[in-house]
Every structure is written in C-alpha cells, then in structure tokens.
Amino acid sequence: MAIAPITGKLRKRFWLDLGCALGLGVSAGYAFWYGYHLKALERQENYYIKLEKERAKAAQAV
Questions:
Q1: In angstroms, rounded to a whole number, what is the distance separating the alpha carbons of residues 29 and 40?
Q2: Which of 4, 24, 28, 53 lies in the 20 to 30 Å Cα band around 47?
Q3: Tens-place pLDDT, residues 9-28
C-alpha cells in the first residue's frame, strides 16, 4: 500500500495564506483608519478650534 505523493500543497497553501494575510491586513488598516484615526483627528481639530476661539475672545476683551 503506497502513499500518494503530496504535490503542490505547499504552493497552494502559500498563496492562500498570502491572500488571507493581505486581505486581513488591508481590512484591519481601513478599520483603524476610518474607525479610530479620523475620529481622533476630528476631536483634536475641534479642540484646537475651541482653543483658538477662546484665545480670540480673550484678545478682544483686552
């Protein structure tokens, strides 16, 4: 009873692993960018706008 040789398994598995890694990596990158980073950037910008308005109001009062 001979065991059939396994041919091409490594190559097929490599492309599957590479495709999954790239797909999941890009998806995670988009999720971070649009789910966290842009919201944090907007909060930061709003904070600086608020500070600038307060600074301008204080300068007017003087």
A1: 15
A2: 28
A3: 777 788 899 999 999 999 99
Q: Which amino acid is at 38?
A: L
In the block, tokens 């944090």 appear at 40
CA distance 55 to 62: 11
CA distances from 18 to 10, 12, 25, 32, 54 (A): 12, 10, 10, 21, 52
Alpha helices in the chain (DSSP H): 9-32, 38-61
- The token duo for 18 is 């590479």
